[in-house]
Amino acid sequence: MVTDGMTTSTSPARGHALAVPNLLTYGRILAVPALVACFYAEGYWSNWLALAIFLAASITDFLDGYLARAWHQQSALGRMLDPIADKLLVAASLMMLVSAGTIGGWSLLAAVIILCREVLVSGLREFLAELRVSVPVTTLAKWKTTLQMVAIGFLLAGPAGDAIVPGVSLVGLSLLWISAILTLYTGWDYFRAGIRHAMEE
């Protein structure tokens, strides 16, 4: 860029950091404490506001990746922060729902499966990254993430949602179990790749 006869340059790293897809990812991370605050706040509308925040954050999960590809703004920072933002959002939501008793009984197992898989995959990704090995995200894994978000959305509606449309919580728990099964299946791809490369080292 030329200003008053002087040439200045914008740092590529700074440009990537302030790209719209990355700003959406930052927003998703910042939405987590807002979601928690609304969920535990008193009042009828607080739960609906928590649901609205969660839905908005979930939409950014689709938008940041789509815009990064469409606008050619993919970056290492975005690739690092995107899965972190997803895990924070899902983990915080599941823990809130467990503490509120919305997820209980055998459904706790589904939540534990999802959380354990996220921890395991994070470790495997770090290990494989050191070996410069990339495990592409499969279509099934994307469906798994979508189902998780939809399930949590139904569960966040909870009793308030059941009062309007009976069975909302049941639908949420059913979808949570389906996403837990997909979580096990898709997690196996990472585990298999990690074991194979670990044995080669």
Structure description:
This protein has 201 residues and is mainly alpha-helical. It has helices spanning 12-17, 20-40, 44-70, 76-99, 107-130, 139-164, 168-200, and strands spanning 2-3, 6-7. The protein has 2 domains: 10-77; 101-201. A two-stranded antiparallel sheet has the order 1-2. A hairpin with a 2-residue loop joins strand 1 (2-3) and strand 2. Helix 3 (44-70) packs antiparallel against helix 6, helix 4 (76-99) packs antiparallel against helix 5 (107-130) and helix 6 (139-164) packs antiparallel against helix 7.
Features:
201 residues, mainly alpha, 2 domains, 2 strands, 80% helix, CDP-alcohol_PTase-I, phospholipid metabolism
List the helices and strands and how they pair.
Elements (H helix, E strand, L loop, with lengths): L1 E2 L2 E2 L4 H6 L2 H21 L3 H27 L5 H24 L7 H24 L8 H26 L3 H33 L1
Antiparallel strand pairs: 1-2
Helix pairs in contact: 2-3, 2-4, 3-4, 3-6, 4-5, 4-6, 5-7, 6-7
Helix content: over 70%
| General shape | globular
Low-confidence stretches: 5-12
**What series of H and E elements makes up the topology?**
EEHHHHHHH
What oligomeric state best describes the polypeptide chains here? single chain
Q: How would a crystallographer describe the biggest sheet?
A: 2 strands, antiparallel
Number of helices: 7
- Strand numbers in spatial order across the main sheet: 1-2
N→C terminal distance:
48 Å
| Mean residue pLDDT | 85
**Total domains:** 2
Share of β-strand residues = under 5%
Radius of gyration: 19 Å
Give me the secondary-structure category.
mainly alpha
Q: State the total count of DSSP E strands.
A: 2
